[in-house]
Amino acid sequence: MPAETSLDDAPAGAAVPAEAVAPLMRGITVLNRLTEAGGTLSPSGLERATGLARATVDRITATLARMGYVRLDGRDVVLAPRLMELGNAYLAALRLPDLLAARADALADELDESVSLAVGDRDGIRFIHQATRRRAMSLSFRIGDLLPAERTAPGPLFASEWTEEDWRGWRARRAADPEDRGFPAVPPRERGGTDGEFEARAAQARSDGWALDDELIEAGLVAVSVPVRDPATGRIACVASVVSHTSRHTAADLRDTLLPRLRSAVADMERALRDAPAARPAPGPQPSGLAAWTGASKQELGREFVESLARGLTVLTAFGEGRAALTLTEVARATGLARATARRALITYEHLGLVVSGPRPAAEPRPAGIPHRVFVLTPRVLSLGFPLLSRTSLPRIAGPHLADLAARVHESASLAVLTGDEIQYTARAAADRVMSVDITVGTRLPAAATSLGRVLLADPETTARGYALLDEEWEEGLRSIAVPVHDRTGRVVAAANVALHAARRTAEECVRDILPELRATAGRIEGEMAVAGRFVRVALH
């Protein structure tokens, strides 16, 4: 069982706390097994993978589906983009992607090489940003992927700050997993370096202030890394790396030609951290809304809705920008949960390694009556499906929603993007009818002649109404109605439509009956796109 997602990731031999929330632990187990399986498993497959009773699996997946974290797709349970809000909470609380990503992207453009940002995660490293060059031989790591420290360039830099306890944990992991099977993002280790070799690399990195990866992960892959230090503590906040292939640079060449530019970029990053204004808390969960939602969900689903699981997962979303370190009181206030409920969820997460606790930093104010102990999310929150979902695209997001729409209105539904003066269909759900609109994904049509295109071209009439209706203008007997789809910034990036034979509905009936359903579908697509696009680029094709 992969080490990064097992419930046994808690310290070896650590007993489950008596106050841990069992349904929450089971829910995390289900999400972990789905992640390990590539994002899709049947309920019976989940039953086998988790060891849970089928009835328990069904209740957990029904609850996760109600939260939008999974989809129940026929016989399968599928991770859904909204699950990324858990990883988003960690990345927003960390602030590093928001503050440094643009500089990493600019460096990648300048050097024409991939650039990554990584943080330490116990005895591994986990990526928090990727600026990847698109080539035949390109970097395949994703945000959230976990790699063993000893097989990377950032690893020795993080290890230079390890305690003796950290080193003991690393040696124990190496002994238990000599081939790195617990790190699915990297190929199994074929040659095993000695413990002493990595210890020497860590000492050298401490002395040099940079480190190399000379084909440690796989043949041909090389990287050079420099630490980005926290201006307040002087400790490593993250590590920036330039990654290349030996067909372009050797490791020595990276050191000699690109390291100076990487160091300069890191100096800019450190200035950005030093000059960053204090984080202002972004909107978090709405306590009153949570209570109403859980109540309605329980009433609708009955015993199939596991309230303690839903409430427990909401605790993770209490964190975010301006809410990196929260006391128990602050978590309870943010979620609207009773202190006892929030406390049990935090105890559970601390056991699973998703949360750590400690004293509030001395530099932060300590309001009277609020305990000094605070809770902080760990990078392991990203292991909950984030790497898999970080490569999602707009057609993948839209597909299930278009299928639901087509099933509700019994007509074909489509998604398209603008390409020059044409539209290109990128997702489609056909109606279950003898006669239906027959257009395949990839088809291109003149934009001005289609309802989808008129929305994307922002025709002034269309803009005022918020939709475009094409009434037998493209083809006799064909009616279609389209609405825009916006990204998280409000920019129109696609359009969705419903197309039907004119004999089935009048133009007025399309506006009255189809348009509300179509707008609701576009809203659901936009909601998932906003979550998925918070820290990653969502491809439009």
Polypeptide structure, described:
The chain is α+β, with helices and mostly antiparallel strands and 541 residues long. The protein has three domains: 7-88 and 281-389, Winged helix-like DNA-binding domain superfamily/Winged helix DNA-binding domain (Arc Repressor Mutant, subunit A); 96-275, 2-Layer Sandwich (Beta-Lactamase); 394-532, GAF domain (Beta-Lactamase, 2-Layer Sandwich), CATH 3.30.450.40. The protein has 18 helices and 18 strands. The strands form four sheets. Strands 6-5-4-9-8-7 form a six-stranded antiparallel β-sheet. A six-stranded antiparallel β-sheet has the order 15-14-13-18-17-16. Helix 5 runs antiparallel to helix 9, helix 12 crosses helix 13 (339-352) and helix 15 (394-409) packs antiparallel against helix 18 (507-532). The longest helix is centred in the last third of the chain and has 26 residues, at 507-532. It is globular. The chain starts with 21 loop residues before the first helix and ends in a 9-residue tail after the last helix.
